[in-house]
């Protein structure tokens, strides 16, 4: 456990040290970013819409029954931007993008492509890890922002269409606007930046550590996804505690 | 990539030892290779040849002993760019996400940081040198190449580095005899035209006796003294003789 954590921290630091190389790898960063967005945008849209919808569906009737209809918008708004969008999108990214990164780097390791890079004096951390981490650092916060907006819309539509709630879209969004500050949005985005770094580093680490044959690639991918999700949930609690303390 | 006959690198290995989980894989390995020559390391599967190769290019760190290139320790030679070395891996080691041209250009773009205008002619030259067609093969992906073509591209990538020494790990494995001979000729031609030192790890006897200046045998992690192919043929050591003559028709009966 200690060794694993120190390896992750060490890879994270080496990636940060490689940051000045970013301009040289800009094309790869853009390519990775495009691939990540392409792979996760539709899924994120569907997930976020229904998460927002379910939130409104479960809380709306109870709140309206007790005369708290103005809370529905706030509840969906705050839940989406402070917790659900960052965590759900991070889990989606870990499953869809993190696994792909681990599989790609793992197969490069098994088929001696990474050895070939070393012998050409190309540092795999600069050439492989940095562009992927940079791309996920750009992609996840944007995806979270998108997810928040879609989740709000999902909640709004359900509140409007469900007869037990019966809120107009205008009323829902005005309540939501009143209950959400820029700071709440910033908290969600800040969380997503931490999660992006974690997913990028954990999945690259597992890919680079792959040893043996093709079977070990599958094992690395499973470990990478499971450990990314565990890291996301643990760090989510830690970051939330810090935000609560600051507030 | 101008042909040069003086840039080959001397290699001197002494007392090299390495154990994995307490099991010695290399022990007391000594090897001396002259600049510009072809040295073939032969041995049975699992004798430690590829592990030795990984140590020689710096992919593994030995427990003991030293590796000197032109008199400089390996780490200094790599760190200070005193020598350029290239390796042709058993399966080519080509990056499957890049096409042939991009694979060959990798070192020039990433390590040398050359501009595209400078890289392209060097890539085309390397492709032509290994007998491939620029127009036809440059944009193929590695997955579309045959085993022989992959080895050629790997050699072209090595040539683009303009190395003083090239290591070949089983260059003719998984190839048909005709392609194997063609690859052997290619190695010999690269050695003659570029003056590079070549170290070949193989258990292909025909290749070894066809192109080697010196041959050394590896058994149980130890290397014999390098000798010329003629000297090797006249050796009376039973292990060497068994290795050299195994596989005749009567052995299968």
Q: Name the helicity range of chain B.
A: 25-40%
- In helices, the fraction of residues of chain A equals over 70%
| Percent of sequence in beta strands of chain A | under 5%
Give the mean pLDDT of chain B: 86
Write a concise keyword list for the protein shown above.
heterodimer, A: 247 residues, mainly alpha, elongated, B: 253 residues, alpha/beta, 6-stranded mixed sheet, disordered N terminus
Walk me through this protein's architecture:
The complex is a heterodimer of chains A (247) and B (253). Chain A is an all-alpha fold. Chain A is 86% helix and 0% strand. Chain A has eight helices and no strands. In chain A, helix 3 runs antiparallel to helix 5. The radius of gyration of chain A is 20 Å and the shape is elongated. The two termini of chain A are 32 Å apart. The model of chain A has no long low-confidence stretch (mean pLDDT 93). By secondary structure, chain B is an alpha/beta fold. Chain B has helices at 49-56, 74-79, 100-110, 116-129, 134-137, 147-160, 177-194, 205-211, 229-233, 238-245, and strands at 11-20, 23-33, 38-43, 64-69, 72-73, 85-88, 165-169, 197-202, 214-219, 222-223. A six-stranded mixed sheet of chain B has the order 6-7-8-3-9-10, sandwiched between helices. In chain B, strands 2-1-4-5 form a four-stranded antiparallel sheet. Chain B is globular. The model of chain B is unreliable at 1-5 (pLDDT under 50). The interface between A and B is medium-sized, with 16 and 23 residues.
Q: Any chance you could write out the topology, listing elements then pairs?
A:
The complex is a heterodimer of chains A (247) and B (253).
Chain A: H1 2-17, H2 26-65, H3 70-110, H4 113-119, H5 124-161, H6 169-179, H7 182-208, H8 214-246
Helix pairs in contact in A: 1-5, 1-7, 2-3, 2-5, 3-5, 3-6, 3-7, 3-8, 5-7, 7-8
Chain B: E1 11-20, E2 23-33, E3 38-43, H1 49-56, E4 64-69, E5 72-73, H2 74-79, E6 85-88, H3 100-110, H4 116-129, H5 134-137, H6 147-160, E7 165-169, H7 177-194, E8 197-202, H8 205-211, E9 214-219, E10 222-223, H9 229-233, H10 238-245
Helix pairs in contact in B: 3-4, 3-6, 4-6, 6-7
């Amino acid at each position: 456990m200690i060794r694993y954590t120190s390896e992750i921290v060490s890879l994270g630091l080496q990636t940060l040290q490689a940051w000045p190389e970013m301009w040289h790898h800009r094309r790869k960063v853009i390519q990775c970013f495009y691939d990540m967005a392409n792979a996760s945008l539709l899924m994120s849209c569907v997930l976020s819409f229904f998460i927002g919808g379910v939130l409104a569906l479960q809380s709306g009737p109870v709140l309206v029954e007790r005369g708290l209809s103005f809370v529905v918008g706030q509840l969906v708004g705050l839940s989406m931007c402070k917790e659900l969008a960052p965590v759900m999108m991070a889990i989606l990214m870990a499953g869809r993008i993190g696994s792909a990164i681990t599989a790609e780097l793992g197969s490069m390791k098994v088929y001696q492509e990474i050895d070939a890079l070393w012998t050409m004096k190309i540092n795999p951390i600069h050439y492989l890890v940095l562009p992927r981490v940079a791309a996920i650092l750009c992609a996840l916060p944007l995806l979270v922002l998108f997810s928040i907006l879609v989740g709000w819309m999902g909640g709004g539509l359900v509140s409007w269409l469900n007869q037990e709630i019966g809120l107009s879209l205008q009323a829902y969004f005005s309540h939501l606007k009143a209950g959400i500050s820029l700071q709440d949005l910033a908290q969600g985005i800040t969380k997503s930046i931490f999660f992006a770094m974690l997913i990028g580093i954990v999945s690259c680490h597992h890919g680079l550590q792959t040893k043996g044959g093709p079977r070990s690639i599958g094992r690395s991918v499973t470990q990478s996804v499971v450990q990314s999700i565990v890291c996301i949930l643990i760090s989510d609690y830690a970051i939330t505690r810090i935000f609560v303390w600051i507030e | 990539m101008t042909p040069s006959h003086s840039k080959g690198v001397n290699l001197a290995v002494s007392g090299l030892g390495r154990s994995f989980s307490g099991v010695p894989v290399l022990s007391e390995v000594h090897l001396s290779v002259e600049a510009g020559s072809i040295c073939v390391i032969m041995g049975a599967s699992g004798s430690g040849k590829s592990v030795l190769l990984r140590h020689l290019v710096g992919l593994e760190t030995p427990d003991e002993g030293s590796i000197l290139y032109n008199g400089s320790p390996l780490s200094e030679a790599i760190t200070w760019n005193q020598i350029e070395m290239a390796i042709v891996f058993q399966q080519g080691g080509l990056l499957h996400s890049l096409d042939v041209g991009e694979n060959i250009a990798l070192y020039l773009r990433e390590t040398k940081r050359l501009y595209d205008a400078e890289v392209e002619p060097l890539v085309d030259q390397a492709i032509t040198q290994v007998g491939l067609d620029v127009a036809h093969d440059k944009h193929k992906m590695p997955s579309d190449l045959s085993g022989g073509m992959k080895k050629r591209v790997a050699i072209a990538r090595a040539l683009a580095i303009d190395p003083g020494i090239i290591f070949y790990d089983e260059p003719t494995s998984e190839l048909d005899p005709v392609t194997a001979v063609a690859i052997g000729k290619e190695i010999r031609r690269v050695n003659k035209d570029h003056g590079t030192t070549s170290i070949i790890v193989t258990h292909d006897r025909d290749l070894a006796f066809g192109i080697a200046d010196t041959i050394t045998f590896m058994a149980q992690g130890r290397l014999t003294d390098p000798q010329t192919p003629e000297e090797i043929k006249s050796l009376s050591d039973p292990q060497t003789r068994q290795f050299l003559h195994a596989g005749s028709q009567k052995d299968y009966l």
